[in-house]
Amino acid sequence: MLKYNKSQIRTLIIFSVFQILIALVFIKLSKCYSMAIENGFVVFFSALCFYIFIFIIPVMLYLKILDKVNPFTYLKLNHNILSGIFKGIFIGVLIFIFVLLKNKFQIYRYAYVKQDIFYILGRVIVGPLEEIPFRGFYMQKFSKYMSFWKSNILSSMLFSIMHVLGQVNFESLILIFIIGLWMGYIFKETQSLWCVSIIHSIYDLSIWIIL
User: Fold this and answer.
1) Hey, where are the domains in the chain?
2) Residue 199 C-beta-side C-alpha neighbours within 13 Å
3) pTM over 0.70
4) Alpha-carbon torsion (33, 34, 39, 45), positive or negative
5) Separation between Cα atoms, residue 167 and residue 192, nearest integer Å
6) Residue 33 pLDDT more than 80?
């Protein structure tokens, strides 16, 4: 049964709009300087700080202070851990194999990866750092006030908006939106954020190494 509380809805809207706007401003500003930065560690550390301070910490504080719940329990980080990890690795490996087969096992980033391991780490950590706010927090919060598919669509739209300022075209944004829907469905079925986080990381890494 869906529960409606105008005060909670208003707070969630303000929080989400403010968070996304701050994130977009940060992304826009970072693009102005990132072109001159070639150090993998600097790029990795900057991305890590971006997600932690703009998404992870605010989400944790929201759940702890406003909702008065255990953030790890709410986000499904301590639920179905082993099964979630196993399913995530299994699906992720299938995706990795499919991508390699489709690209005829040509890995264009091989030499680049050997040069700086931080570029790999950046792709690996982005999985959980994006799944925590968009599937773990937003989708679950929205599902409190609307049906699963509506909440999944809305959270996937926010997920896509985050990539608008990236080097992606319209077709890529549609693909990102569809992937968001898929991740949301898997999260609902597995009830484990570990599963979608691992799938997300492996998918990003798979796409990155062939581009």
Assistant:
1) 6-210
2) 24
3) yes
4) positive
5) 30
6) no
